[in-house]
Amino acid sequence: MSDILAPESEAAPAQDSFVVESNTTPDGGAAESDASFDASASSRRDEEPSADATSEAASTLNQKKRSLEGRKATYQQQINDLARQRGEMQRAYESERREFESLRAQAEQARPVAPVEVDPRAPQEDQFETYGQFVQAAARYAGQQAVYEAQQQHQQQQEQHDRQRWHDHREATHTDRLESFRTSNPGFDVAVNREDINLSTPMVDVIKASDVGPALMLHMAHHPDDAQRMSVLHPVLAYGEMKALEARLSVAHGSTAPSTYVSKARPPIRPVGSTPSGSVDDPSEMAFGAEYVSRMNKLDRDRRRR
Who wins on pLDDT, 38 or 251? Predict the structure, then answer.
């Protein structure tokens, strides 16, 4: 209540409405002058792009944008063209493939089918009165075929075994002859180990099967011209000349000359108008010997000249 009843204090005098400007900044520094403020404002106005420059930049940007869109449309068109060409090529390939398959099927149908070989001994159903008789005959035939095939297989195996045994025996015998021949001829290996002498298969066969095989090898080493001449002859002629040489070397080394096999078969029937038997121009009926070999060599040379 004392506050309420207290007399009012005098009101403070009103201040003027104008603001006193100060040349100092809040931190106590000197404020910029009006001249420096105007200069900075003018500088900022100079840095701002003008309306013409802005319009020119916008125009350049639009041109680049349109150019980019044009290139994009061109690339897309090229992609579309390539896709279309690929589709056309794929359709053409499929068409050619179908045509090829059709032609191949027609060729397969037109190709004659090779007839199936039928054993004439095999029983046929129409040869019997009842089906049971046919079944029995077919069973017997199947058993006979099985036995025949087993016999053939056994015979082939036996022939192969005999050939292998003969080959092994020939190789072992030839090796023994070489060892024995080296004992009496120390320079044998040096003489025969030559790369300039080629022997054909008939020549090698005669050398390995002959009792004077090492002597034949040494003869070829000392006479390379004869070896070269015989190596290019027909196998039959080369075999004949090697056997003739074997006979001469057998006599020279004191062994018995190999006997000449004379066939007991009848001579072949000569056609009408052919050269009579015993003609000097046809040595086919002559006994094997030096004259036979000479005539056959002459015939071989005449054939090669033709």
Answer: 251
